[in-house]
Specification:
Chain B: It comes from Flagellimonas eckloniae. The complex is a heterodimer of chains A (271) and B (168). In chain A, 33% of the residues lie in helices and 30% in strands. Chain A is α+β, with helices and mostly antiparallel strands. In chain A, the strands form two sheets. Chain A has a six-stranded antiparallel β-barrel with strand order 1-2-5-4-3-12. In chain A, strands 6-7-8-11-10-9 form a six-stranded antiparallel barrel. Chain A is globular and about 90 Å long. With 168 residues, chain B is mainly α. The two termini of chain B are 15 Å apart. Classes of the chains: A alpha+beta (271), B mainly alpha (168). At the A-B interface, helix 2, helix 3 and strand 2 of A face helix 1, helix 3, helix 4 and helix 5 of B.
Chain lengths: 271, 168
């Protein structure tokens, strides 16, 4: 008995290391396969406020660019207003009934790691809940993952766990949008069947198969494509419209019919 | 004794803020975010309680993890480096380091730089292998370890010569 205790005392540092290592590895492996942790993420009070105050200071330096971008967007919207017969306004009308838009801004952005999360300055108090879509004026950004009362974390499209329904514009061929970690401006669209005619430069937009994003939100253009290993589907490199390194103002999309859609879907699969 | 506690506490907080607010958003060349907080392990007193040192390092990494939404990657890497620091010291400074009156003052610049370099190298290897966790991306891991490691080493060497606690 004495020997066992001595042994443990002699190697107490190794035991401590082993114990903490197991804690670390469990957390890491879990985060690779499951959703982000509920408790340890940057949407929480302390981290959110640190990022919030830092973003408060740094946003002054970007005001000029940001204003230009907003003016440009206003121009587009005015164009739609004065030309009510264009196609775009009709789409705008049908979506505005089912979707509500909440504006916000990014307080922490990351795009260099394989699993990127963005922190935004809107949370439960502003009506944000998990699985809402997040877009910018140029295109999609990600999906809300965790919320606290005043902040939320967003799983960026630049995340190996991200899987968003997307299609080729003006067709109904849809696939999944994934990311292979290599370039932060290029994502991959997979599962597009071989018989689909593709052209470099075609626009990719969100598909209608999810209740998170409305249909036809721009994502990017085809940069290059080739067939996958089984030679029956395309792997398409999509260059994003968003410059992921330089995003600031965002819009969060709330689908008013989401609960109904999900309730129906669970009822259908249960039976 | 008390002053080292305060000094290390201050370093702990300042390094977290510097890492999270400045270096995590640097994205030099699109992917290089130097992990300069490793210098905490370089500056930490040699004669301290080893268990406390490991727990402190673990929490240093873990707090940075919470800020950067990486779960326990920083914690694992920092913990590992903290655990093998004595081995690295024996490797870099020879048996001298076992003596009571050993301090950084009576080591050469090359020895200190090797020590710092090895700390950073091991930290980077653990961090990026766990972050990418796939054998098909060995080249990507290698590229990131090398690029980020070199930038981190340069910055840490600058920091250590600017705010050297050993010259006091």
């Amino acid at each position: 008995m004495q020997r066992i205790i001595n042994f443990i005392l002699n190697y107490r540092n190794a035991f401590l290391y082993g114990f903490l290592m197991v804690v670390c590895l469990t957390l890491t492996v879990r985060s690779h396969s499951y959703h982000q942790s509920k408790f340890f993420n940057s949407s929480k009070w302390l981290t959110g406020n640190v990022y919030g105050s830092a973003a408060n200071i740094s946003s002054y330096f970007e005001l000029k660019d940001e204003n230009k971008r907003l003016v440009r967007e206003n121009e587009e919207l005015r164009k739609l207003l004065f030309n009510p017969n264009t196609n775009a306004i009709q789409q705008f009308d049908t979506t505005s009934i089912n979707y509500e838009i909440i504006s916000g801004s990014i307080i922490k952005n990351s795009f260099a790691s394989p699993r990127n999360y963005i922190t935004i300055d809107k949370g439960e108090n502003q009506g944000i809940t998990q699985d809402m879509g997040v877009i910018t004026t140029k295109g999609i950004l990600g999906i809300v993952e965790n919320t606290s009362s005043n902040f939320a974390t967003v799983q960026s499209v630049l995340n190996t766990k991200s899987n968003i329904n997307a299609k080729i514009k003006n067709t109904n061929y849809f696939g999944s949008l994934t990311w292979n970690v290599e370039d932060y401006n290029v994502v991959q669209l997979i599962d597009i069947p071989r018989l689909v005619p593709l052209v470099v430069g075609d626009t990719i937009v969100t598909g209608a198969m999810s209740s998170i994003f409305p249909e036809d939100i721009p994502i990017g253009v085809i940069k290059k494509y080739d067939l996958n290993a089984s030679r029956s589907f395309y792997n398409i490199d999509v260059e994003l419209f968003n410059d992921m390194a330089n995003v600031k103002n965002i819009y969060i999309i709330q689908n008013k019919n989401k609960e109904e859609i999900e309730a129906l879907e669970t009822r259908t699969t249960d039976e | 004794m008390n002053s080292t506690l305060i000094l290390n506490g201050l370093r702990f907080i300042l390094l977290i803020l510097i890492q999270v607010l400045i270096f995590n958003t640097l994205n030099f060349l699109g992917f290089i975010n130097p992990l300069v907080y490793v210098i905490f392990l370089y500056w930490y007193p040699i004669k301290g309680n080893r268990a406390l040192f490991m727990v402190t390092s673990f929490f240093l990494g873990f707090i940075i993890d919470i800020f950067s939404d990486t779960m326990a990657l920083h914690a694992t890497a920092t913990l590992t480096v903290a655990y093998i620091r004595p081995v690295l010291m024996r490797f870099c400074f020879g048996v001298n380091y076992e003596f009571q009156n050993f301090s950084f003052k009576n080591t050469t610049k090359v020895q200190r730089l090797t020590f710092l370099g090895l700390l950073i190298l091991i930290h980077q290897i653990v961090f990026f292998s766990l972050e990418i966790i796939s054998l098909s991306h060995v080249l990507l891991i290698f590229k990131r370890v090398l690029a980020t490691g070199i930038v981190t080493l340069i910055l840490c060497a600058l920091f250590s010569s600017l705010f050297s606690p050993h010259s006091e």
